[in-house]
Amino acid sequence: MGPMSNLRAQILDLVRQYYEETFSGKSFDPPRDTVHYGGRVFDAEELCNLVDASLDFYLTANRYAERFEADFAEYLGLSDAILVNSGSSANLVALTALTSSKLGNRRLKPGDEVITVAAGFPSTVSPIVQNQLVPVFVDVNLGDYTAIPERVAEAITPKTRAIMMAHTLGVPFNLDVVMDLVKQHDLWLIEDNCDALGSRYRDRLTGTFGHLATVSFYPAHHITMGEGGCVITNDEELARIARSIRDWGRDCYCAGGESNTCGKRFSQQFGTLPHGYDHKYVYSHMGYNLKLTDMQAAVGCAQFKKLESFIARRKNNFRRLMQMLSPYADRLILPCATEHSDPSWFGFAITVRDDTGFTRNQLTRFLESNRIETRNLFSGNLLRHPAFESIEHRIVGNLTNTDTVMNNTFFIGVYPGIGDSQLEYIRGVFARFMRGDRV
User: Fold this and answer.
1) Boundaries of every domain in the chain
2) Which residues of the chain register pLDDT less than 50?
3) How many CB atoms lie within 10 A of CB 284?
4) How high is the pLDDT of residue 256?
5) Is 279 part of the annotated catalytic residue set?
6) DSSP readout, 34-103?
7) Sign (positive/negative) of CA torsion 31, 35, 39, 43?
8) Beta bridge pairs of residue 228
9) What is the chain's mean pLDDT, rounded?
């Protein structure tokens, strides 16, 4: 070990010591601490990886990003995992990839319809609108909050070219019906898997059914890089297009810092450019720079080792909450999984039933005042938000349940940072409210 390697080892030893003195050994203090709905759970390894990457001072994607992409693709059993700077960027890249001229007649074109839901997160729908496609909204079930399968089937017209929906709060949508429709009508499928890493449908990981899928590594999600996301696919052509869109839209597929991987850097013809124009500066797509840093990927590599244990803890917390809150099922619609699914739960969704004597807002205000974080189920009804009120769209049937979600639904956390003490505290606060305590 050389002097620099020895110095790096000393630095990392000090980082571990810093973790022990700064972050470890904290216990939950009910009168003071908040039960968060989500958050980062980490140990010294994340900090060590972060500092180790920073000492390289490469800054942009490098060895940790390469390692994560390879390991993540292997975990999913897919050919490609393409890291980006957020789950929202992953959605943008995945949907935009399907508009590529390299797909010929299969490409999505302005005016084509994409089936989705309004009871979700805006960045599932924004890329549809931004690519001049028409979102077609269907209603969701209460309890699992995924698209009503019959409505998806009813939504298909000759203009329908794709389906892009999320596995809501980790609950897989009905993939039997969706995959049959995809095959029957030759549709593209993008799975927004941002809330569902590790969820399974018929014992197969979600994110592996669609032509493309997306993942988020925001701190509330199953593993985190702080910011970060990923596009995943088993189609090498789509992977190359997605990388191009992530990397400024360039035609070249050289890794950062490399040149002439194809061996034809100065000997090709593109568009009406001069023959032999430098391939590193040829652009085949309207692209962006949506890469992440190697320091983020370094955190992700440490987090990835904990994924299975995180999933197990989420499932355990979900089971515990279900046991605790089942006595109130006459007043609350408690969450459920779709048939054939095994969710890697993102949150514990609750819908306040009508005529219970209290509202969703009264319950969430009480929980929040007692330091239990709540979140609405994202947009509620996206079409009622200012940014989406005037977009071109189509609705199939009605959005009755979506409006119920907007008015009556919220969720609390199941993330691994919630332990026995927090769960017992949640039990007590709900019991007080259900007994009539409103202060």
Assistant:
1) 53-303, 306-434
2) none
3) 18
4) 65
5) no
6) -B-SS-----HHHHHHHHHHHHHT--BS-HHHHHHHHHHHHHHT-SEEEEESBHHHHHHHHHHHTT-GGG
7) positive
8) 86
9) 96
Spatial neighbors of 306 by CB under 8 A, at least 6 apart, are 41, 223
β-pairing verdict for 188-192 and 212-216 = parallel
pLDDT of residue 150: 98
**Which CATH number applies to 306-434: 3.20.20.60, 3.90.550.10, 3.90.1150.10, 2.40.40.20?**
3.90.1150.10
Residue 25 identity: G
Which fold, 53-303?
Aspartate Aminotransferase; domain 2 (3.40.640)
Report d(CA 126, CA 147) in Å as an integer: 18
- Choosing from 221, 279, 285, 393, which is the catalytic residue? 221
Task: Give me 68's structure tokens.
Answer: 């994560």
pTM for the full model?
0.96
- Distance from C-alpha of 426 to C-alpha of 412, rounded to nearest angstrom: 10
Q: Which two tokens stand for residue 432?
A: 């007080």
Residue closest to 113 by CA, chosen among 166, 152, 150, 168: 152
Q: What would you report as the CA-atom Rg of the chain, rounded to the nearest whole angstrom?
A: 23
